Known about the structure:
With 90 residues, the protein is an alpha+beta fold. It has one domain (5-89). Helices cover 44% and strands 24% of the residues. It is built from three helices and five strands, in the order H-H-E-E-E-H-E-E. It has helices at residues 5-17, 20-41, 66-70, and strands at residues 46-47, 52-54, 58-64, 75-80, 86-89. Strands 1, 2, 3, 4 and 5 form a five-stranded antiparallel beta sheet that branches. The radius of gyration is 17 Å and the shape is elongated. It starts with a helix and ends with a strand.
Amino acid sequence: MRFDRKKLERYRELLQTTDIQAGYQEFLRLFRFLRLGLEKQLPDCRVQARIEENAMEYCYFQLTNSCMHTKVLEVAGAFVHGRFPLEIWL
């Protein structure tokens, strides 16, 4: 298995010299708040309880309602870390 030692060292440096870890935890709190808010505002929808994280590339949660479910459709609230937008995926 190969890995880039310089990137690993840079990651350790960032963890030790910045508040990146605290910032990431704060982002997760905000994303959970958004998920819970949608769950309250859209009582007819089933909102996934768990936030899926993908190695800091993006994270998302899914929601659907009975009409979408019969058509095998789901909507996801997603956040793409590199570009920093909040997106809606179908």
